[in-house]
Specification:
The complex is a heterotrimer of chains A (299), B (244) and C (352). Chain A has 299 residues and is mostly helical. Chain A has eleven helices and two strands; from the N terminus they run ααααββααααααα. The chains are: A mainly alpha (299), B alpha/beta (244), C mainly alpha (352). Chains in contact: A-C, B-C.
């Protein structure tokens, strides 16, 4: 097998890094929800697709710039998240295996509804800038071709993550959330209303994936069935990074983005998803706490 | 072999915190040995090390001369060491009798397709249950028992596997004085039948009255050992309990 | 009379099931019955791991698909009739499952569930890509059954009924055995089970293998009935979900629960599929039913009924934290204060 040229490897790695930035935004909600409530939200992938559909339809019907669709999708998913936690999840929180099944069932409902109303043809938002690339010469002979959507997506993702980080660090609600992640009992003792925090966190978690979905809709093609592939990717990322760790999610997302890109070069793209699945599987059984997170077992 | 358990310079830490530091102690066979010390002194960690929940980072743990360092908990139980927990742990959805049966050692294909309870085992369980006054509750789910009854059940159940050494983690906590007396007598009786005990307790009266020998732990280090009389007047021990 | 009915009801039920296809003679009913028995068998198998031991694998479709492909390949390359080969090939899948389980079962609780999903995805991806063996994305075809076309699905009906009976008997024996007790202990408190001497790793691996066996067997027979298999269907996650759903509805951890759930939901979902013509809406309905069961009746039908009966029969269960007077008197034995009966007896002997 011929080794790919440096140009190709560098190209793929750079694009992978940018892609990883977008992955980070998509995954951060998942790890936040786990950190606060020990809940694994299998429906995260389905909500990603849902937000992408919202962006798609707003663009197709009204010409709305996909990034702006967050005005609709973020509040919508936030409110739904709060309600779902308050009225459904809170009833079964003691049994975590059951929680996984419940969120899985929710994903099925979403996917079924989306497939029924919006069919299963592949969709993607095709704005004018979708195929534009930025060409960066490196040295004398190399040239990097970076898709503008991924550059923009990555930048916007970092901005969104920054807003989230600032919120967690400086606001009262954010402090309460961080306290709950560290020690729920102690947090309760100092007056944190755990039920409220949990509802809020689930809402925020879905809100972030709504933002991610807006970016996602421009970069990738999707069908309702895509949720399967994406929840696996997102789970791999947060498990690798350590469930409950936000910095871990960012690092793992970047690693995965690069690894995925490199894998596609060395194997055909049909089998490259196996990289994600294998990393997920092996991490779960060999080092469940991932790179930076708390132990999943004690959940 | 008069020493049933030897802990030989065992050290264990969690992350950066040393829980047990170079700890050495030995238990005489057929005796009741106590382990006391302030909270956080490493007593429960020591229990976890003995029963195989953790593997000691350094040092040796020997049961009747045989090293048990790398055995998993179920193997250590099979070797003859069993324990109860500070916060009572039972199989809550199972009946009292079933809780007694699970610990019985069993081998081979008979376990797959035979019955779950054989009559000789049931008899043995019932006799033990009678001893602790729980025989009338044999078919009740464990979660229905009162706190005191649960503690007794936990103790009775670990005896079913026929251990040589029983580790008790705060057997007298949260229990009224009559029950404490009952438990003390039960332990004495079992001891006279050949079972050795290693007991962690905060109730000083319990320890001093019951134990033949006592070890004192503070911040993971053994600071004193001796008969209860010696320990009671040991200045180092008094300092640890009365000092900050 | 009711007592006899309670004990021996399977017998008349069995007779009804045996006559059913002769009364309802269309292939549609035979196929429906076959599907009911198929899912009841596989759910019963899943329950041994998910219900008794409490390890709910969402990826059991992997074994279903492996059983299907094994039967298909054996039928095409070696000419083995899947009805005969499936029970044998399923053993191979079970062994594979046990080896896999040895690695997977290091993860517990929710981690195990996710790992099982990852396993399924990996297997599906491999099946899609190893085209020379599995026929890739288009899949494989199987030979048509050798019996006269008039019989159509009838042999499948009786065959699967027989397999179901075996599965229920095995599940029943296991449930009432020491092994079953150990699995229930693992579900109740795995750490405690390990501490009292149950070799939890061995038990879990064994349960995993046995549960995989029945699912793989089902897959092989299903492949034969379908005559064509492909990765999306053989390794679709829906099959695994259905097993969990039926088991949870009937009552996970009981012997008859999975069968009850299948008998109720398979015809029902068939009806829904018929109504909506196979559009994705059936996924939504499946999910909605699952959510309803999880939220409102998580223990399932049989345990819920037993719970109501228990509550009616023993309303005065002691729930206080204190010892009752009876307990104290019992423990004090005779007149000796604070002594057990045996201690009192010993004290008597010591008197000069």
């Amino acid at each position: 097998m011929q080794l790919p040229s440096l140009n190709v490897v560098l190209q793929v790695a750079m694009v992978g890094l940018l892609t990883g930035g977008v992955y980070a935004l998509m995954a951060v909600g998942l790890t936040l929800i786990f950190g606060v409530m020990r809940v694994i939200n299998i429906a995260h992938g389905a909500f990603l697709i849902l937000s992408a559909y919202i962006a798609y339809w707003l663009f197709t019907l009204f010409g709305l710039e996909p990034v702006l669709s967050v005005v609709v999708s973020v509040p919508l998913l936030f409110v739904f998240g709060m309600f779902f936690q308050r009225f459904a999840l809170s009833r079964i929180k003691n049994d975590l295996g059951l929680v996984v099944l419940l969120t899985f069932a929710l994903a099925l409902v979403l996917v079924g509804l989306m497939g029924t109303f919006w069919q299963t043809t592949g969709r993607s938002v095709s704005t004018w800038y979708v195929n534009e690339v930025l060409i960066i010469p490196v040295g004398a002979t190399l040239k990097l071709r970076l898709p503008w959507v991924k550059i923009g997506g990555s930048v916007l993702a970092i901005v969104a993550l920054g807003i989230l980080w600032a919120h967690l660090k400086f606001s009262d609600m954010g402090r309460a959330i961080r306290a709950t992640i560290q020690n729920p009992t102690a947090a309760q003792l100092v007056g944190v209303n755990i039920a409220q925090i949990q509802a809020f966190t689930f809402g925020i978690g879905l809100a972030t994936v709504a933002a991610g979905g807006a970016l996602f809709s421009v970069i990738w093609t999707f069908t309702p069935g895509s949720h399967d592939e994406w929840i696996s990717k997102l789970l791999s990322i947060i498990v690798l990074g350590g469930m409950g760790s936000l910095p871990g999610a960012l690092i793992a997302a970047l690693i995965m983005g690069v690894a995925e890109g490199l894998a596609a070069v060395f194997m055909t793209s049909y089998i490259s998803p196996i990289v994600f699945y294998l990393i997920l599987f092996l991490t779960l059984i060999l080092r469940p706490q991932g790179l930076l997170g708390s132990r999943l077992r004690e959940g | 072999m008069s020493k049933i358990l030897e802990i030989d310079r065992v050290t264990h830490s969690f992350g950066g915190i040393v829980a047990v530091q170079d700890c050495s102690l030995s238990l005489e066979r057929g005796k009741i040995t106590g382990l006391i010390g302030p909270n956080g002194s490493g007593k429960t960690t020591l229990f976890n090390l003995i029963t195989g929940v953790h593997t000691a980072h350094s040092g040796q743990i020997r049961l009747m001369g045989r090293s048990v360092n790398n055995l998993r908990p179920s193997q250590i139980c099979a070797q003859g060491i069993c324990r109860t927990f500070q916060i009572t742990r039972l199989f809550w959805e199972m009946s009292v009798l079933e809780n007694m049966i699970v610990p019985i050692r069993h081998v081979g294909l008979r376990a797959l397709f035979g019955a779950s309870i054989y009559s000789d085992e049931a008899d043995r369980a019932m006799r033990l249950l009678e001893r602790v006054g729980l025989d009338h509750l044999r078919d009740q789910p464990a979660r229905r028992l009162s706190f005191g009854q649960q503690k007794l059940l936990e103790l009775a159940a670990v005896l079913m596997s026929g251990p040589d050494l029983v580790l008790l983690d705060e057997p007298a906590s949260g229990v009224n004085p009559t029950m404490i007396r009952f438990i003390m007598n039960l332990i004495r009786n079992l001891n006279s039948e050949g079972v050795s005990f290693f007991i962690v307790e905060h109730n000083m009266h319990f320890v001093m009255e019951l134990c033949d020998y006592v070890y004192v732990l503070d911040q993971g280090v053994e600071i004193a050992n001796g008969t209860p009389e010696i320990i009671q007047s040991n200045p180092a021990v008094l300092e640890v309990y009365l000092g900050n | 009379m009711t007592l006899i009915l309670r004990r021996w009801w399977p017998l008349p039920a069995l007779i009804l099931l045996l006559i059913f296809p002769l009364v309802f003679a269309e292939p549609y009913y035979h196929l429906l019955g076959f599907n009911v028995f198929l899912f009841a068998t596989m759910a019963t198998g899943w329950n041994i791991m998910g219900g008794y031991a409490g390890y709910r694998s969402l990826g059991h479709s992997a074994f279903y698909g492996l059983g299907a492909y094994a039967a298909a390949i054996a039928a095409n390359q070696l000419g083995w009739n899947p009805l005969i080969s499936s029970p044998i090939l399923a053993l191979g899948v079970a062994v594979f499952a046990m080896l896999l389980g040895w690695a997977m079962l290091r993860a517990t609780g929710a981690a195990f569930v996710i790992a099982s999903i990852a396993m399924l995805l990996i297997v599906r991806l491999l099946a899609n890509n190893f085209e020379n063996i599995t026929g890739g994305a288009p899949g494989l075809s199987l030979p048509i059954p050798p019996w006269p076309p008039m019989l159509s699905r009838l042999p499948f009906y009786y065959y699967m009924l027989g397999v179901l009976i075996v599965a229920i008997i095995v599940s029943g024996f296991l449930r009432r055995s020491r092994f079953g007790l150990g699995l229930l202990a693992i579900r109740d408190d795995e750490g405690k089970a390990e501490m009292v001497g149950v070799n939890t790793t061995l038990y879990k691996i064994l349960a995993f293998g046995i549960s995989a066996y029945f699912v793989a067997l089902g897959g092989g027979v299903w492949a034969y009935a379908q005559t064509h298999i492909s990765p999306p269907f053989a390794f679709g996650i829906t099959v695994g979900v259905q097993l969990i759903l039926y088991t949870m509805l009937g009552g996970s951890g009981t012997v008859w629960g999975p069968t009850l759930g299948a008998f109720i939901l398979v015809p029902l979902s068939d009806l829904i599929l018929f109504q909506f013509g196979g559009s994705p809406i059936h996924l939504a309905v499946l999910g909605a039913v699952m959510m309803a069961i999880i939220l409102f009746m998580p223990r399932g039908i049989i345990p819920s009924i037993r719970g109501w009966q228990e509550a009616r029969a023993a309303p005065r269960a002691t729930h206080t934290g204190a010892l009752s007077m009876e307990d104290l008197q019992r423990m004090q034995g005779g007149k000796t204060e604070g002594g057990s009966p045996s201690e009192a007896a010993a004290a008597e002997h010591e008197r000069p």
